[in-house]
Specification:
Helices cover 42% and strands 19% of the residues. By secondary structure, it is an alpha+beta fold. Strands 1-2-3-6-5 form a five-stranded mixed beta barrel. This is Thermonuclease family protein.
Length: 282
């Protein structure tokens, strides 16, 4: 009897197991049928969704590193320097046209003045043939563009000239504090032209030159004495002398420490701007 009971239990278990397997097979078949009925998604859409999902995720460590590392600045187009006229005047090539630029707020020595050539060379070394950025201030009475030149490394050429002692801060036209401080430092440390015990400002140099030119022009139109083109006179070739001498043995002429020139009276008057010495005149 016990064997019959065991066979009965085994038979029932096998029946239940077979029924469960059949039920799972039916469910799996129904699920496969539903999947076949759905439309197949477009591959491009799937890839785009995957890209969006990937972009939305970012490693926090990588994000922090990106914040600490500044991005490189974008390259900005500049204007090429194609000429240097003097320390404070350059020529830029802008859109295929040459533009003369007068540096704002600075005044370098004239070319025939002390440090004039050195100032021009300094500017040439800094910018010639390079791409620079121009910050326009205005136009001057000569039609030149007045502005600040920014060097490729971000420094201002205007400030560099003053800081290194190759230009004055042009206070008559600028109240720039940076330029004023740059000149104060250059003076203090005797850089460039400030090593000279008595430097002459370019505006004073130009004023004196204009006065001398006017004086020379006036003497060139002076009325000559009779026989001046043939009469021989003598003059001391010194900037401190303003006269010519008819008598070579004149005591005043003998005190001359420079060369004594022999010229006609007309040349002495019109080219040297001299007048007749009254001390030894007859």
């Amino acid at each position: 009897m016990s064997k019959l009971f065991l066979h009965t239990i085994l038979f029932l278990s096998l029946g239940l197991f077979s029924a469960c397997n059949q039920n799972e097979d039916r469910q799996r078949a129904r699920e496969d049928f539903r999947q076949r009925q759905q439309p197949v998604p477009d591959r491009d859409v799937v890839e785009q969704q995957e890209d969006i999902a990937t972009a939305e995720y970012e490693d926090p460590a990588e994000a922090a590193e990106r914040e600490r590392t500044p991005s490189e600045p974008a390259t900005t187009a500049g204007d090429k320097v194609v000429g240097v006229k003097d320390g404070d005047t350059i020529v830029l090539l802008v859109n295929g046209e040459e533009v003369t630029v007068r540096l704002y707020g600075v005044d370098t020595p004239e070319k025939n003045q002390a440090f004039g050539q050195r100032a021009k060379q300094f500017t040439s070394d800094m910018v010639f043939g390079k791409q620079v950025r121009l910050i326009v201030n205005n136009k001057d009475r000569y039609g030149r563009t007045v502005g600040t030149i920014i060097l490729p490394d971000g420094r201002s050429l205007n400030e560099e000239l003053v800081k290194n002692g190759f230009a004055w801060h042009y206070k008559a036209y600028s109240k720039d504090v940076n330029l004023a401080n740059a000149e104060a430092d250059a003076r203090r440390f005797k850089r460039g032209l400030w090593a000279d015990p008595d430097p002459v400002a370019p505006w004073d140099f130009r004023k004196n030159k204009t006065s001398n030119t006017s004086a020379t022009s006036s003497t060139a139109k002076a009325t000559l004495p009779a026989g001046a083109t043939k009469r021989t006179v003598y003059l001391c070739n010194s900037s401190g002398s303003a006269v010519y001498h008819i008598d070579k043995s004149c005591s005043v002429l003998k005190r001359c420490k420079a060369e004594v020139l022999t010229v006609t009276e007309a040349v002495a008057i019109r080219e040297y701007g001299r007048r007749a010495d009254k001390t030894c005149s007859n």
